[in-house]
Amino acid sequence: MARDPQVDLIFSHFYPRYAATGVDFNDLNRLITRIDFWKDWCRVWSEEAHRHERMAEDAAKSGRRLTAAQAWLRAAIYYHYGKHLFGAHPSEFNAAQANMLRCYAAAARDLPRPMQRLEIPYRGKHIYAYLRRPENVARPPVAIILPGLDACKEELHEWTEPFLDRGLATITLDGPGQGEAAAHFPITTEWGPVIGTVIDFLAKRNDVDAHTVGIVGQSLGAFYAPLAAAQEPRLKCCVSNCGPFDFGPVLPQMPDVSQDLFRIRAHLSTRAEGLAYAHKLTMAREAQKLACPLLIIFGAGDRIIPVSEGHLLAKAVRGHVDLVVYEEGNHVCFNIPYKFRPLSADWTAEKLRAAQHAKMR
Fold it and tell me: What's the predicted TM-score (pTM) here?
């Protein structure tokens, strides 16, 4: 029986991403052999997630809290990838989403560098985030890290580690059209108000430096991040990792399931409406407002977002720009996480500490 080409396409695009964000490669190779049809995608990933849940429960019963937390974390990321690009199947998607949130919350209790769930009031509802803080830093600068179209804040867990290692606090956030926020807030071009609300929320705390905040994004989040930096002047720096400059021409080249998910996340009825709306996601009119330092990271081998989009953004902004293109990099450079993660964290830490020193002078 022929294998569904949709399954092969998604694995070929995202195998490095799955491995880089917490899926054990032995499990991943087994999943490749188990999934023949796209209709089975969420079910099989969820079965694998449930296996790790059982390991977490067994460890917890034995008082092995760290082992349990690590297994909960793996279960969460597996449930997340079960719903990955599966938005056209809402019942399975929602079940996997609920299981992911439950497992991630269970992991948060006992992992080193605990994760604090935040519920941030926004336009009559809430947006949700996780705060992590480095050890032995009273009021650290903050890096807000944004997921992309088919990601969510829970997927960003591994990326927070190098920022924490460098003395920064991290906020992983589901904004409009993302993760938990997607049901109430559609994809938007108004990211300044979103991030401004987050900064206002942080300003009420005494355990982070809300006056020294940077923003980091991957994929479509790497469009939202510079858009927010153009609209919210309190941001001190911005990292854009493989994001579009103008999403309109990019979306039609993406897999059909990505186009469907964009339509769903934009709260639109037809794919044609989604493709038309994608043209509103452009930095052409906003780039000149972006004045804070900007790091653009791209993989020359990106098959999702062309590297030319990074060059367009670099030319359009008026502030300081560092453009780094890894010739061997794929989308978000997930095939070389040992390069993009330290770079993004080092650069952000340097820029935020420079901003702190300038503030004290």
Answer: 0.97
